[in-house]
Structure formats: structure tokens, C-alpha cells
Design the sequence.
């Protein structure tokens, strides 16, 4: 067995670009999924009954489906149902965003529910409306509680971006495997792929640990 | 009986009825929390609600500002029935101040910000006016020097005084106290009761659910004894504590070791 | 949008075999990862000191590397190193076990550490040995506390089997891909797959919730 690790170095630019894409996907998805998740959570907590039911259905649906299936399904169904010709990148982003929004909505809902009922009552006793109570009292406190969970969701999302490789989005997994196919350097490229994910992911995992320690809630 | 009852004396002496409870009924599933409560609160009065736990005192208070809805009877506030619609109810709440047993200060805001929150967000005062009110109210409860502290940096008694200041900053017509000292260490109870006495002396209308019998005896103008969702006896503090009319009241007071 | 369900009914055996593989792979990798994860956790908590950093490295690495990468590496790269070729199912089993065991280890560790230290002290005061304490006092309480996390891990396991489709394991996702490609009816096929996964997963998460609520009191100290 001879290993030629130089293949990794030769393709460093492509790998770097692919890594950038992975990071960009993660950031873009969270940028969408954070506000959307908050909105869905608010709808679930305070909307009219049909709105609450719809929001709950959405959350339960996407929490109970494999993301890879959502990616495939989005690839085939979205263009037809929306009439738009979406690029694989946009489709992948949409699938990721739909998925993470559902998780975030659940995180926010649990975070707000974990607050003492008395806080809502104190706000209402002052004459605040539901929206004011949410905005000024509940969400600021809930954010502190949900931060560890959101951090953990972020790391999962980072790893899940690898799944959009199945629809040929040029993120790290897809590009690595393409280079593997072209160069026949299977072990080297796949190990390099794992190593790059590890290099990026390990510090993120440690950061999540730190956040969880720092923001641990003591009642 | 042709002699004047305490009720008649009170009605003759006191001013306008700020709150009138008429046949108030409240159920939680099968449990009857309030089974027809009649009570009047006059302007400037301190009405103390006493009785065993679970007798409905706190429930009545929470019905007063609409945190709970009634299943029967009415509550009149300043001559008008308590509205059911949320927007109107909110407006009414701004005229009532409520102080909770668990203080419920907003932990992410400083003492000053807590007190200023109502005027800013609900009354839509500008920042300067809200801060001015807040500073004044904090000084009133004796905590001007703690304005920049977060609730976690304050003792229980201090937190409760900030909570009182927060309610006062709204300039309410009536203050509702739900067992304000039940969660406090004995040493800090005094500082809170002292603030409440000052308010009473200034003529604030107050409805106080409390287990502090000395406070009720000394500061209260009217005492209502609750048991199992009803008022079993109401009267002046002197009458209730020194010469209770009903068995139930006597039982309750002796349980507390009240020796007068 | 025309919905032609005939593609499903005509090929139901093909899809059903996929569902079968999904369930078997989920169950077996679930079981093996729990077993391995338990051992790893106990090694970390009670094993020799020199072993701990290695275990921690393993656990944290699995948090950093996507399942897809682990599966692909196990199927394509591992045979090159070991010289053995493995059928896709076993590669998937190994890959999933290695990945999930790390999470199991974390759950077990968190569960054990959440039992109040007073419980250990009280047991020592009674004269129990460490092993007895762990076995009779700590683990029973810890296991109850771990249940919700295990429930969600079971759900994740089932979802992760779908990723095994990329290494050609003939589970439901793979079968759906194949059928969708051949029949040119991806919408019907993938929608059916979504339905099946939802029907499998929804009761799992709900069931664990309900079971936990029944037994939660056993874990409180």
C-alpha cells in the first residue's frame, strides 16, 4: 500500500473554497432559522388555535424526518410546486433552513415555557400586552437559557451541511468526494475530509461546552 | 338589631367604594376556590384578607386584576364592572398595583430599570420621565443606593421593596399585596411591613393577603376572614382579633397562637 | 400536480424491504451503540486515569465529524487499511455504532453525574463498596434520568440510517432513490418515504416522553 498525501495539497484551493461554502451554508441557515424559529415559537405559544395547530404540525413534521430525505424531496418538489428554478445551493439552503427552524422553534418554546409563570403575571399586572411581555420580559430571559441549546444546534447544523452533498452542492463533503473519484486517492482524500471537519468541528464542540457551563441556569 | 353594625359605621365614615366584590365565584375544574364572596373596599382603606391556606384569599386578589377570570358574580372597580376584553383590562391593570409573594422582579434588569419598566413600556413615558419616577419611588422605599443592582444582588426584603416601588411607579389607585412577606426571612419582614405602613398612612387604598396578624391588627382598617372560599366574618381589626364572632375565626386565630 | 400512487403499489415489496432494513439497522446499531457507549462511559468515569484523555478525544471527535463522513470513510477507506471488504450493511453498522456510542457515553456520564453526591455518601456510610454503590444506587437512578436523552437518540439513530443510503445500504432512503430515478416519479416516491419515516418516528418520540413521565419519580433524589 502506498499513500500519496500530496493529492490533498494539490487540491488545497478547491478544498478551501469548499470549506468556505460549508461555513457559509451554516451561517446563512442560522441567519434564517433564528428569527423564523422565534416567530414559529411565538405562533405556537400565542396564536389562535388554527395557527397554533399549523405551527405545531410544522415543528413536529420536520423533527420527525431525516434531513437527507428532506433534501432530496426539496430538490424534486420545490421547483415544481413553487414554479421557481432553484439552484441546488438554494434548494439545499431551503431544506436546511426548514429543518433548523423547526428545531429552533422547539428550543425557544421550551425556553420561554421554562420561565416562571410569575414573570408573565408580573408583566401583565403592570398592564403590559402579550407582545410587550414577550419582548421586554420573556425573550430576554429565555435567550440566556436557550443559548446553550442553540450553540449545540449550530454544531449539528455544521455537520448536517454535509448532507446537501447528495444534490451536488459544492461544500466540503461533495468536493472531497469528487476529488477522490477523480484522483483515485480514496484513503487520503476521505481521511483529509474527516480531518478538515474535525479541525473545524472540534473547537466548536469545545466552545459549546464552555457556553453550557457559562450559561448554566440555577434556579 | 337596631344598633349600627360595623359595616354601617364603615359605610358612613368612608368615602367612595373603590372595589366591590359581589357574589364572586371561581372554580378550578372540580375545585371551588371561591363560593360567593361579597366585600367592599373603600378609598383610603387597608383591607386585610386572612385565613388558612387554600381558602381563596389569593384567588380573590388575582381575580381583581384579571389574572384569573370569574365563573360567577361581579367585580366593580371605581364604579365600572371589570372588563373582559384584554385591551380594556390592561388599562384597568395600570390603575392597580400588584405585589407578589415571590417578588417577580425581572432578573435581567437593574432595580432602577425594573421600576422604570412600567412607566416606559406601558405608560409610554419618555426615558427621562420614567427614570425620574423610578428614582423617586426607589428613594421612597429606601433603596436609592441600590438603583444599579440586579435582583440577584439584593436580599429578599430589598427585592420586595423594589417590587413595591415598581408597582407604585405606575401611580395606581389601589395596591394589591399577595402575601408580600411570606417568602421573607424574619429579619427582613419588618422593612417591608414598614414600607407598607407608610403607604397606608399616606392614604393608599390597599388590599393585603397576609399571615402577619400584628400588621393586620395595627395597620388594617377592615379585616375579612376567609375559609373554604367564603368570607366567614368581616369587621374592624379590633372586633375580629379581640372579639371574634364566629367559631371558625376563633379556631383560626388560636391555631396561629394569636393571643392578642 | 398529478399524484399517481400506482408506482408505490406496484413496487411495494421493494419499498417494504427498504423499510425492513431501516428498522433492523436502527435496532441493531441502537443496541450496539448503547452497549459500546455504556462501556466507554464507565471507562471514563471509573477507569484508569491514562485512559480518560483518549476516551474524551474519541467522544469529542464524534461530535465534530458528520455521520456521512464516518460512514463513507468506514465503507471506502477502512477496507484499504485493513484489506477486508465489508458489505455495506456492516460498514453502516460499524460507522453508526462508532458515531452514536460517543453520544451514548455522554448521556450516561451526564446521567451518572446528575445523581446527588449525597447518595454516594449515604451508601458509603452504610458500608457499601464502590461497585455496589454504582450498581445498586447510582445506575438505577441515573438510568431513569437518561431516558429522555436516549429517546431522542433513538430518533436520531433512525434518521441516521437514512444517510447509509450514500453507501448503498438498501434501506428505505436508498430504495426510494432508486425507485424515484427509475420511475421518474420522485414526488410520489419521496412523499411516501416521508410518510413512512414520520409514522415510524413520531410514536418513538411521543412514546419516550410518556414513558418517562411515568417513571420520572424513580430518578428523583
Sequence:
Amino acid at each position: 500500500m502506498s499513500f500519496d498525501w500530496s493529492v490533498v495539497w494539490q487540491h488545497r484551493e478547491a478544498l478551501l473554497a469548499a470549506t468556505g461554502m460549508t461555513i457559509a451554508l451554516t451561517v446563512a441557515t442560522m441567519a434564517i432559522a433564528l428569527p423564523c424559529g422565534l416567530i414559529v415559537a411565538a405562533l405556537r405559544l400565542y396564536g389562535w388555535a388554527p395557527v397554533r395547530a399549523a405551527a405545531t404540525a410544522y415543528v413536529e413534521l420536520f423533527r420527525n424526518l431525516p434531513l437527507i430525505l428532506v433534501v432530496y424531496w426539496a430538490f424534486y418538489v420545490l421547483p415544481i410546486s413553487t414554479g421557481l428554478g432553484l439552484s441546488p445551493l438554494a434548494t439545499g439552503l431551503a431544506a436546511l433552513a426548514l429543518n433548523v427552524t423547526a428545531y429552533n422553534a422547539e428550543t425557544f418554546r421550551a425556553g420561554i415555557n421554562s420561565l416562571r409563570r410569575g414573570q408573565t403575571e408580573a408583566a401583565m399586572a403592570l398592564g403590559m400586552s402579550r407582545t410587550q411581555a414577550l419582548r421586554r420580559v420573556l425573550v430576554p430571559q429565555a435567550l440566556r437559557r436557550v443559548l446553550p441549546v442553540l450553540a449545540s444546534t449550530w454544531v449539528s447544523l455544521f455537520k448536517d451541511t454535509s448532507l446537501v452533498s447528495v444534490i451536488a452542492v459544492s461544500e466540503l463533503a461533495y468536493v472531497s468526494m469528487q476529488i477522490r473519484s477523480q484522483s483515485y486517492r480514496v484513503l487520503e482524500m476521505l481521511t483529509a475530509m474527516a480531518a478538515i471537519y474535525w479541525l473545524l468541528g472540534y473547537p466548536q464542540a469545545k466552545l459549546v461546552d464552555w457556553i453550557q457551563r457559562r450559561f448554566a441556569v440555577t434556579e | 338589631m337596631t344598633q349600627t353594625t360595623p359595616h354601617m359605621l364603615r359605610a358612613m365614615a368612608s368615602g367612595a367604594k373603590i372595589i366591590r366584590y359581589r357574589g364572586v365565584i371561581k372554580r378550578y375544574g372540580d375545585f371551588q376556590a371561591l363560593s360567593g364572596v361579597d366585600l367592599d373596599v373603600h378609598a383610603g382603606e387597608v383591607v386585610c384578607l386572612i385565613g388558612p391556606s387554600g381558602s381563596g384569599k389569593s384567588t380573590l386578589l388575582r381575580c381583581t386584576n384579571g389574572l384569573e377570570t370569574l365563573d360567577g358574580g361581579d367585580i366593580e372597580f371605581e364604579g365600572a364592572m371589570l372588563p373582559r376584553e384584554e385591551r380594556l383590562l390592561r388599562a384597568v391593570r395600570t390603575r392597580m398595583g400588584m405585589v407578589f409573594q415571590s417578588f417577580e422582579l425581572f432578573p435581567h434588569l437593574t432595580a432602577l430599570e425594573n421600576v422604570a419598566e412600567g412607566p416606559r413600556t406601558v405608560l409610554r413615558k419618555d426615558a427621562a420621565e420614567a427614570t425620574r419616577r423610578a428614582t423617586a419611588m426607589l428613594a421612597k422605599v429606601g433603596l436609592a443606593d441600590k438603583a444599579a443592582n440586579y435582583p440577584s444582588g439584593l436580599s429578599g426584603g430589598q427585592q420586595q421593596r423594589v417590587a413595591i416601588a415598581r408597582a407604585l411607579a405606575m401611580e395606581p389607585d389601589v395596591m394589591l399585596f399577595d402575601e408580600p412577606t411570606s417568602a421573607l426571612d424574619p429579619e427582613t419582614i419588618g422593612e417591608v411591613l414598614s414600607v407598607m405602613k407608610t403607604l397606608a398612612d399616606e392614604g393608599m387604598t390597599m388590599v393585603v393577603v397576609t399571615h402577619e396578624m400584628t400588621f393586620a391588627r395595627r395597620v388594617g382598617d377592615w379585616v375579612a376572614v376567609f375559609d373554604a372560599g367564603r368570607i366567614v366574618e368581616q369587621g374592624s381589626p379590633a372586633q375580629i382579633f379581640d372579639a371574634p364572632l364566629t367559631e371558625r375565626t376563633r379556631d383560626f386565630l388560636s391555631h396561629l397562637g394569636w393571643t392578642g | 400536480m398529478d399524484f399517481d400512487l400506482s408506482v408505490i403499489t406496484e413496487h411495494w415489496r421493494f419499498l417494504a424491504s427498504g423499510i425492513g432494513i431501516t428498522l433492523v439497522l436502527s435496532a441493531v446499531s441502537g443496541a450496539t451503540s448503547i452497549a459500546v457507549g455504556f462501556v466507554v462511559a464507565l471507562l471514563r468515569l471509573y477507569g484508569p486515569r491514562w485512559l480518560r484523555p483518549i476516551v474524551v478525544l474519541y467522544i469529542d471527535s464524534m461530535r465534530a465529524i458528520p455521520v456521512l463522513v464516518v460512514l463513507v470513510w468506514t465503507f471506502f477507506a477502512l477496507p484499504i487499511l485493513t484489506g477486508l471488504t465489508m458489505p455495506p450493511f456492516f460498514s453502516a453498522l460499524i460507522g453508526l455504532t462508532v458515531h452514536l456510542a460517543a453520544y451514548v457515553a455522554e448521556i450516561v456520564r451526564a446521567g451518572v453525574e446528575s445523581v446527588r453526591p449525597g447518595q454516594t455518601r449515604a451508601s458509603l456510610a452504610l458500608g457499601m463498596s464502590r461497585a455496589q454503590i454504582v450498581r445498586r444506587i447510582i445506575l438505577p437512578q441515573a438510568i431513569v434520568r437518561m431516558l429522555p436523552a436516549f429517546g431522542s437518540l433513538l430518533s436520531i439513530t433512525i434518521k441516521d440510517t437514512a444517510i447509509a443510503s450514500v453507501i448503498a445500504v438498501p434501506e428505505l432512503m436508498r430504495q426510494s432513490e432508486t425507485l424515484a430515478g427509475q420511475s421518474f416519479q420522485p414526488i410520489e416516491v419521496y412523499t411516501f418515504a416521508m410518510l413512512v419515516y414520520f409514522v415510524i418516528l413520531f410514536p418513538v418520540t411521543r412514546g419516550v416522553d410518556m414513558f418517562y413521565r411515568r417513571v420520572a419519580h424513580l430518578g428523583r433524589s
In short: Chain A has nine helices and no strands. The mean pLDDT of chain A is 90. The radius of gyration of chain A is 21 Å. The longest helix of chain A spans residues 12-46.
